[in-house]
Design brief:
Blueprint: H1 3-43, H2 47-59, H3 63-77, H4 84-93, H5 98-110, H6 114-127, H7 133-144, H8 148-162, H9 169-178, H10 182-195, H11 200-207, H12 212-222, H13 229-241, H14 245-252, H15 261-274, H16 278-291, H17 295-307, H18 311-322, H19 327-345, H20 348-356, H21 363-379, H22 383-391, H23 400-409, H24 412-418, H25 427-438, H26 445-456, H27 459-472, H28 477-490, H29 494-507, H30 513-527, H31 531-544, H32 551-567
Helix pairs in contact: 1-2, 1-3, 2-3, 3-5, 4-5, 5-6, 5-7, 7-8, 7-9, 8-9, 9-10, 10-12, 11-13, 13-14, 13-15, 15-16, 16-17, 17-18, 17-19, 18-19, 19-20, 19-21, 20-21, 21-22, 23-24, 23-26, 26-27, 27-28, 28-29, 28-30, 29-30, 30-31, 31-32
Length: 568
């Protein structure tokens, strides 16, 4: 062959290779375009058109993607059986494709064809006898459907066929939790988390239903040394979900920088906020601020402190934030929180001075701030200074703070209009609104002084005043007595509270507070180790107030007391 012919053949060969590559590239591009069009139609809920588009994807050679698309679309249309024919054709060409096999199991079980699903599982096992995939997918589906016993059978088959359960740790963990074997479930999840840290959410979801009696065993396993960051985050999330936010924070606080502590603390703090665990959220935000000083985080920690009733700890956090901010941000973001904190603490002089020294405040904001100063003076017991502070806010008869001052003066008629729709629905506001709704009286200086004592934090004077007000206002007597009892119980004065509860149960049997008094009386007796007396009170509640919303709680506490008594 001469050199000219050889060069010509090489050129033809290169050209054919280029054409082959170009054809493959064009084919891949066409597949991508078809896939994107089908996906867009599906996302737009144009399911009939999406069916045609996904069939085009299959025809173009992307069989698995097309079948999975058809599965989703026909499921939306309620026509799952329409997928079976193209799926069978696809499996005939590629019987070991895991995605297709998984889709087959899902479809057959969703349509209630349990026997066919079992046959499909057996067929998959026969094709791949040493593969864990058939057992993994089938057991997972059974567990998701709540068929724990059937899933257990599949896992036993896996152990017999494969010689081990390696690769099935998640399914084992889920199965043990489904069967209520919480200690074993925790151990299995611990092993699974060691291998796959990304499954924290699955572990939390699985272990969260553990009953109170089993939670210590879960804690013991997850907290066992050595503990890893995934284990700590899992246990922390469980503690928060179980209503123990402080325990959750104790676990998560030990995370280090290497464990991405900051991000974990941030997620936990937001969860704690949503759960209303304000002081724990404060601690998490404060830890974040200490690790990476940030004015916004410091203010968020301060906000949580105030919401949690610990305004004192908010002040140093706000002072730290001030040092990092410009005057405008201090005036608009920090100042309101500082005034709220001082107001909550009853530090009227400091609040007044802070407001007086603040410049460039808009009239509307100054009016709001003046009310906070007034509240600070109220909590300090300085009613006249509160009036003076409120005068700068241009208060009127419908103003809320004016209404509170009227209440403390005993002018119930003037208090009612301003307290119909309080700006902030606090426990204190709800209590006073309920009181004003229970009495038709226009005045009661005794009641006013009692509520002022509550605002000042003088619980002993408040309890005594509420009891005297009950004699003065018969239509609100059971409400006032129940409130006095709650105050006494909060002061750990159970004997004094029991006297009030007994008075309500004896003389105000038709009042809504009667059932509540029976329940709280029983709880006080339980605290005093008088279980037999507590049982008697709970039985009285169940028999006397069969329509009370407190009955489910009373039954649970009665059963707990009886079980405890039996164990003794």
């Amino acid at each position: 062959m001469n050199s000219r012919v050889a060069r010509l053949l090489r050129r033809i060969s290169c050209a054919m290779g280029w054409l082959t590559l170009s054809s493959a590239a064009l084919g891949a591009q066409a597949q991508n375009q078809l896939f994107q069009r089908a996906l867009d139609l599906e996302n737009a809920s144009r399911y009939r058109e999406a069916v045609v588009a996904w069939r085009s994807v299959i025809a173009a050679g992307a069989t698995t993607q097309g079948i999975l698309g058809l599965e989703r679309v026909f499921t939306q249309l309620g026509q799952e059986d329409s997928v079976l024919s193209p799926l069978d054709s696809a499996l005939a060409m590629n019987p070991a494709d895991r995605a297709l096999r998984g889709a087959q199991l899902r479809l057959l079980r969703s349509m209630g064809h349990d026997a066919q699903a079992r046959a499909a599982f057996d067929s998959w096992r026969a094709i791949q006898p040493r593969d864990v995939a058939p057992y993994h997918d089938y057991a997972s589906q059974l567990l998701q459907e709540g068929h724990a016993a059937a899933a257990d059978t599949v896992l036993q088959q896996a152990s017999a066929a494969l010689g081990s359960l390696q690769g099935l740790t998640i399914e084992i963990a889920q199965l043990r939790a489904a069967l209520g074997l919480w200690g074993q479930a925790s151990t299995a999840w611990r092993d699974a988390l060691a291998a796959e840290s990304y499954i924290e959410s699955a572990a939390i979801y699985s272990l969260m239903p553990a009953p109170a009696a089993a939670r210590d065993s879960v804690r013991g396993v997850l907290a066992k040394l050595p503990t890893t960051a995934p284990l700590k985050r899992t246990l922390g999330a469980l503690e928060l979900a179980w209503g123990a936010p402080r325990s959750a924070w104790r676990v998560l606080f030990t995370l280090t920088v290497a464990d991405s502590a900051y991000d974990s603390w941030n997620e936990f703090a937001q969860d704690a906020e949503r759960a209303g665990a304000w002081l724990v959220a404060r601690d998490a935000f404060a830890a974040m601020h200490k690790q990476r000083p940030n004015a916004s985080i410091a203010m968020r920690a301060a906000q949580a402190s105030i919401s949690g009733g610990d305004a004192a700890s908010a002040l140093p956090l706000l002072a730290s934030a001030r040092e990092m901010l410009q005057p405008y941000a201090i005036r608009t973001q920090v100042l309101p929180l500082q005034l709220r904190a001082l107001s909550q603490l009853g530090r009227g002089a400091e609040a007044e001075a802070l407001l007086a020294n603040s410049v460039d405040i808009e009239a509307g904001a100054r009016k709001i701030y003046a009310r906070l100063v007034a509240w600070a003076w109220i909590r300090d017991g300085q009613i006249e200074k509160a009036r003076a502070a409120l005068a700068g806010a241009n208060g009127d008869d419908e103003d809320e703070v004016t209404a509170w001052l009227a209440l403390y003066d005993g002018n119930l008629a003037k208090a009612r209009p301003g307290l119909r729709r309080p700006v902030e629905i606090t426990a204190e506001a709800v209590t006073v609104m309920a009181f004003l709704g229970r009495t038709h009286a226009d005045s009661s200086r005794t009641a006013g002084r009692a509520f002022l004592a509550l605002a000042r934090g003088d619980s002993a004077q408040a309890a005594a005043g509420l009891e005297r007000a009950a004699d003065e206002l018969p239509d609100a007597a059971p409400f006032l007595l129940a409130l006095a009892a709650r105050v006494q119980a909060a002061r750990h004065q159970d004997p004094a509270a029991i006297v009030l509860w007994e008075r309500i149960v004896t003389y105000f049997t038709a009042a809504p507070e009667a059932a509540e008094s029976d329940l709280e009386w029983a709880r006080a007796l339980t605290r005093g180790k008088n279980n037999s007396g507590a049982i008697e009170r709970l039985e009285h509640l169940l028999l006397t107030y069969p329509q009370s919303a407190l009955l489910p709680q009373a039954r649970r506490e009665l059963e707990s007391l009886r079980t405890g008594a039996a164990d003794l």
